[in-house]
Amino acid sequence: MGLPTTPFHIFSLFLVIFANLELLAEAKSAPDYNTLVYKGCAKQSLSDPTGIYSQAISTLFGTLVSQSSKTRFFKTTTGSSQTTITGLFQCRGDLSNVDCYNCVSRLPILTDKLCGKPVAARIQLLGCYMMYQVAGFAQISGLELLYKTCGRTNVGGSGFEERRDTAFSTLESGVTSGNGFYTTSYESMFVLGQCQGDLGSSDCASCVKTAVQRAQVECGSSSSGQIYLHMCFITYAYYPNGVPKMSSPSSSSSSSLYNPSSSSSDRQQDTGKTVAIILGGAAGVGFLIICMLFARSLLKKHDDY
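The structure corresponding to this sequence follows.
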């Protein structure tokens, strides 16, 4: 089938190309729940000359990924005697089963890519995390700090600390009554907290309280922050113009809420550059196609004479 040569068809083809590349630009610029937050890899590598550990880890990963389409938290053990390996995954409490599966299914590959085969590993994405450890690996406190980040903008004064602490207080009580997951907004403050799925309500409340205290001390008057302890995490952000509305957990607006540590102005500049480059490329490609089709049309007319 030949390429269209009429002006209308040429213009339609250009519009289709332009529209598709514009959609591509939007997709590339929107962050989502698959964003890497941090990795935790044990320094000690597995001694696995027979491959028995690798097989056990592969079986464990397969089970965890399979379960992620049915539930947001699952913990299991595989192997036997000396090769026992415990692992779990957890998705953010507001993710659907489909989004949870899509998030968790990335983690085995990321674990191998980022950590290799250590005796213990944990990979945290914006929407989910997965971890495993072999039997005998040293246990750590559920309140141990794994990762923190604080926003670069300071907004001390003007009642910021009072609004933040009131939102934190609401979060502490909400996460206990909300089965280990809670999110809310209060006077331009957005807060979210989640505990590991098998943590009791009392331990969950204690963990979130510790995370809140860490945020108050270590992030101070920063406009946003994330605190990840071994058994829970919190994230918060201050929006002076009001907390943006969320359409879905994977939308760009909601992703900026859950991962607020980078400045919104930086994100907007990066997005603008990406869109400009792609749309500029679209215009160039469209113009080149029009020139080629116009030349072909002239050659065809010349051959007809």
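The CA atoms of residues 57 and 85 lie 7 Å apart.
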